[in-house]
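Moderator note: this is an archived Q&A kept for reference. The question asked for a predicted structure of one protein chain; the sequence and the answer are reproduced below.
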Amino acid sequence: MYCVIQEIKLKKPDMKGNSKDIEPYTGSAGNEVYYSYRKSSECFERDIKKAYKISIHHSYREDGKVKKKQWVICTIGHYYMIEWGSWIGDCCRLEDKLEAIGISEEELCDLVYAKLDPLIERIKNEYQETEEYRVATKNEKIIKKHQASEREFNKKYGKGYDQCYDIFGELKNETKLNQILEDYKYHKEYEEKSRQRQEERYKRSYYENSNGNHNYSGSSSYSKANSSNHNDNEKKLLKKIYKKMAMEFHPDRNLNNQDEAQEIMVLINKLKEQWMI
């Protein structure tokens, strides 16, 4: 068996050319303005009108005569190989071809790509010498840079890059940018103040517990106990009670009333010590 690649002529190129430019445009969603882009409608002209028919041939003798069989695998367009690649499985029902020929996928690929790979390399090398390739590469770099800048900005500030900058990274809305920066600054300051308040609460709680300044139990007998009167089973139940109360009243779970939650946690922790669990 051997592979034959036949060049055939087309009436027109198999694919439209790439856009010649990137056009920024301004859109809106509700009251918000955003900046995006689109590829221009003016495209490069493509003058190569070729495709390549790939087939497998098999010559054999039967009753002293030479006979031939031929199976057409697929036809791949010239520019299709540049834009989308050359995997024959994308252009035909490969399973049907393998079954008809009676060979494995590996055997078929060995036959086909021994002939196809040099052709692909030549086509791509020729394309890389064109103005279309140069412009398409430049435009792709602009888009990738824009996407990377947007990811980095939105990761830090949450969102808003496309409300401030256009596809070329030019600042279009300084007012919106300042608003985003102010919101970010306020959010960070709020987080820091919350962290400091939480730290102070824990320090105060620790100090009060250490010095015994508060007794929330309503009975002095708890604070004076120095030994546990509970058996092992009761201690297990008390641990469950403690964990449940601690989860329910922990300040981190009661952000709207942290001061009260902190006071309750002080009492819960005192009970834990008194229960000796």
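Archived answer notes: The first strand starts at residue 2 and ends at 9.
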